[in-house]
Task: inverse folding
């Protein structure tokens, strides 16, 4: 009898076929340990090679590629076909006990290499299906009859060929408003147009297609792409400040005038006059980082103080806040160095009770704290004894009249 394939949930039919076998044999098979069953299968390397070469022959994978799968079983012994050795197949009795087979399958599922091979296969299949679907949709869109377009002049889809994303987005919004095709047709045409840009083709095929799958509209495409490519207010301000600082009058007068006009247009668009303090503060932090005065992490901490998560200004006194926070960070980073400085002090002999207490504190390694007024500090002491309150003005002084 040849071995057939069936799912793990269909073991009852096999049990009924062999119901005439003796009870003793069935009990003996159920007592088989996992180690004994494992000896009847191939070793780990051979199993992984078999899985990589013919996954569809040993696993039943959910074709929605949601990560779910089941092991295909041998019709004779009820064991998984993955790693199955025909010469070791149990053809007598009911085959392997269901609980024992589940243990073997679960041990394979927990294997890291096994999971990596399965996940890689599923992702590749999912990507292939998505590309195939996009190509079919593009072919359908091309085959559809062209509808009359009310737009006069240029009617092709605006191409993103290196201009700023904001400029291209406005062109797309204008085209979307004037084009009278269906939303599905416009969506497919725009996706096909973007795929022709080699720099973003992978992003379009995977990320953009997946994020807009449930909302197949041009507006959804623009919103998703804006999250990745649109500049924030802080990026725009900083870029404009660089243009202003580096502006040169080289070349022909017409070229100089055009560059100046574009710069002034950008200045009015972001209202630089109103946001001048914010823009100067951003430039100040950028130069501090480039000169090595602050780290990139410290720059991000400073930016968090003056702008929102979306990169927009959230305060009116950004310069003051940054300067204050910058001083605070530098004091914290160098506070131990302040403690390490040698401080010369001259004391007169004091035989009062407070004087004797003070001398004892100094012998124990304590010094007056610079950061906590009215306390003595010993950096080598335990944390709960590092700071001790000064007794000056306490009962010692009052009793000794010191």
Result:
């Amino acid at each position: 009898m040849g071995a057939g394939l069936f799912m793990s949930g269909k073991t009852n039919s096999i049990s009924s076929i062999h119901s005439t076998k003796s009870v003793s044999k069935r009990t003996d098979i159920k007592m088989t340990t996992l180690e004994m069953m494992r000896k009847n299968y191939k070793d780990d390397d051979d199993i992984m090679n078999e899985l990589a070469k013919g996954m569809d022959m040993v696993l039943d994978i959910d074709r929605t590629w949601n990560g779910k799968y089941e092991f295909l079983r041998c019709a004779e012994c009820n064991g998984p076909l993955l790693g199955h050795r025909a010469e070791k197949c149990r053809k007598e009795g009911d085959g392997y006990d269901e609980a024992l087979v589940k243990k073997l399958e679960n041990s394979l599922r927990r294997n890291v290499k096994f999971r990596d091979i399965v996940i890689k296969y599923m992702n590749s299949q999912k990507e292939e299906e998505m590309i195939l679907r996009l190509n079919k949709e593009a072919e359908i869109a091309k085959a559809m009859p062209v509808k009359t377009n009310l737009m006069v002049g240029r009617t092709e889809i605006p191409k993103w060929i290196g201009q700023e994303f904001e400029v291209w987005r406005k062109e797309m919004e204008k085209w979307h408003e004037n084009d009278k095709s269906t939303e599905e047709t416009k969506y497919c045409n725009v996706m096909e147009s973007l795929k022709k840009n080699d720099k973003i083709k992978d992003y379009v095929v995977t990320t953009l297609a997946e994020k807009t799958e449930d909302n197949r509209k041009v507006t959804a495409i623009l919103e998703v792409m804006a999250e990745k490519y649109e500049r924030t207010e802080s990026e725009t301000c900083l870029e404009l400040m660089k243009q202003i600082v580096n502006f040169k009058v080289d070349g022909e007068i017409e070229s100089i005038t055009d560059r100046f006009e574009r710069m002034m247009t950008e200045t009015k668009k972001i209202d630089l006059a109103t946001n001048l303090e914010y823009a100067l503060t951003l430039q100040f932090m950028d130069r501090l980082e480039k000169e090595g005065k602050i780290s990139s992490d410290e720059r991000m901490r400073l930016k968090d103080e003056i702008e929102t998560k979306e990169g927009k200004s959230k305060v009116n006194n950004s310069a003051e806040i940054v300067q204050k926070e910058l001083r605070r960070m530098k004091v914290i980073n160098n506070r131990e160095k302040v403690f390490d400085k040698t401080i010369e002090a001259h004391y007169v002999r004091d035989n009062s009770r407070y004087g004797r207490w003070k001398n004892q504190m100094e012998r124990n390694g304590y010094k007056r704290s610079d950061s906590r007024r009215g306390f003595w500090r010993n950096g080598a002491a335990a944390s709960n004894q590092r700071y001790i309150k000064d007794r000056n003005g306490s009962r010692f002084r009052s009793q000794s009249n010191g």
Summary: Residues 2 and 223 are 57 Å apart (CA to CA). Residues 112-143 form the longest helix (32 residues). Strands lie at 5-6, 59-61, 69-71, 73-74, 367-368, 375-377, 387-389.
